[in-house]
Structures are given as C-alpha cells and as structure tokens.
Amino acid sequence: MTSPISNTVPLNAALAPLEWLLGTWESDEPGEGTFPTIKPFHYTETLHFSHVGQPAINYMFNAFQIETKRPLHRECGFIRLKPGTNHVVFINAQNTGLVDIEEGELTENQLNLQSCSLSRISFAKEPHVHQICRVLRLRPDGKLEQTVSMATNNVPLTQHLHITYQRTS
Ligand code: HEM
C-alpha cells in the first residue's frame, strides 16, 4: 500500500528517473509461470511502489492464486540509484527465504537487473536459486511488464515469469 506520507513528502530528486514506477499496479491478465521442472501456472499480482522522501523506493510484490485469491509468492524491498548514474539496485527479500541483491541499468523506461548476491534461510526448499534476471519495462501503451528468469541447482537460466500490469493508483 502506498504510504500516506508519500502523498505529502516531495519525491527525493535522486528518484526522479524512477518516478514512472510509483503507485499501485495490478496484473491486467493472468501472469504466466513456467520452468522446465514445474507444471506451467497462471497467477495474479499486485505491485506497490512508494517513497517517504528518502532516495529509495519501497516496494511490495504480492502474487495470488487466481481462483482462490490465496497469497502465493511475495517480495519486498528497496530500489536505489547510484548517485549521478543510471546504475540501479534492488534490495530484495522473498517469502521463500531467499534474499537477493539485483543490480543493473536503468534506461529511459526499463530496468534490466541481474542478481549479484543471493542468500537463503537454512531450511529453504530445494532446488536453490543461483541466478535471477529481471526486466521491468513501462511499455508505450502505459502497461508495466515484468519478466523474470532464474537458474537453479538443476536448470540453467530459463524464464520463470511473464506478466503485465495496469496502474490502478
Ligand atoms: C524472483 C522471483 C521468484 C523466484 C526466484 C522463484 C523461484 C522458484 C523456484 C526455485 C521454484 C522451484 C523450481 C523447481 O522445482 O525446479 C519455483 C516454483 C514455483 N514458483 Fe516461483 N519464484 C519466483 C517468483 C514466483 C512468483 C511471482 C510466483 C507467482 C505465483 C511463483 C510461483 C511458483 C510456482 C507456482 C511454482 C511451482 C511450485 C511447485 O510446483 O511446487 N514464483 N519458483
């Protein structure tokens, strides 16, 4: 949920290049989940990007089972830009017990991210993730598109998720 404070506190100037992300985004059609070792699936997802005046965006990604609306995968964290550059970082925690830092480049309306550090809780389920590549792109039609690929113990880098969202606030 967007923090009320973000309505009153001016956006930190360092975040101006990322302003297009701010707000709430809901999947407009079911996301597609795939991976060679699992049954393909569909899901819905809500993304919240907010700020409190600091040079960091706060985000929450909440995915749901379509029919039951049961919560599934969840991620939250911070997005920061290296001052004076287009170098962007995601500091990300996942409900599966995975914590990762993804770094990459911001081009006009697109974030290209690669994991550079992954860590997990001692009882995280196998297979373990060893690499994540994520693209978040604002399309010319105003929709946000997310594509996530991952590599695990058993499978080299392969697409896991593709989904589009429309802004709802
Ligand atoms: C960066 C984000 C994510 C990572 C790193 C990740 C990682 C994984 C891994 C490692 C697996 C097991 C693959 C295997 O068994 O070989 C998996 C399966 C799965 N993931 Fe994700 N996932 C992510 C996001 C999501 C999201 C957003 C959803 C949305 C619902 C999702 C739904 C699923 C489902 C349904 C399975 C199959 C579970 C099963 O068959 O037991 N994942 N994911």
Overview of the structural elements:
With 169 residues, the chain is mainly β. It has one helix at residues 5-8; strands at 23-27, 31-33, 41-50, 57-64, 71-81, 87-94, 98-107, 110-120, 129-138, 144-152, 158-167. The chain has one domain (5-167): Calycin beta-barrel core domain (Lipocalin, Beta Barrel). It is built from 1 helix and 11 strands. Strands 1, 2, 3, 4, 5, 6, 7, 8, 9, 10 and 11 form an 11-stranded antiparallel β-sheet that branches. Protoporphyrin IX containing FE is lined by residues 33, 35, 37-38, 41, 43, 63, 72-73, 98, 127, 129, 132, 148, 150, 152, 160-161.
Write a short abstract of this structure.
This protein is mainly β and 169 residues long. The chain is 2% helix and 56% strand.
Which key phrases capture this entry?
binds protoporphyrin IX containing FE; Lipocalin; mainly beta; 169 residues; 56% strand; 2% helix; 1 helix; 11-stranded antiparallel beta sheet
- The domain count comes to 1
What coarse outline follows from CA principal-axis ratios? globular
Count of DSSP H/I helices = 1
In this entry the ligands are: protoporphyrin IX containing FE
Q: What share of the residues does DSSP label as strand, in percent? A: over 45%
Determine the N-to-C terminus distance: 10 Å
Specify the helix fraction band.
under 10%
Low-pLDDT stretches are none
Oligomer: single chain
Structural class: mainly beta
CATH topology: Lipocalin
The CATH H-level superfamily is Calycin beta-barrel core domain
Give me the count of strands: 11
Tell me the series of helices and strands, N- to C-terminal. Answer: HEEEEEEEEEEE
CATH class: Mainly Beta
Radius of gyration: 16 Å
Arithmetic mean pLDDT: 95
Let me know the largest β-sheet.
Answer: 11 strands, antiparallel
CATH architecture classification name = Beta Barrel
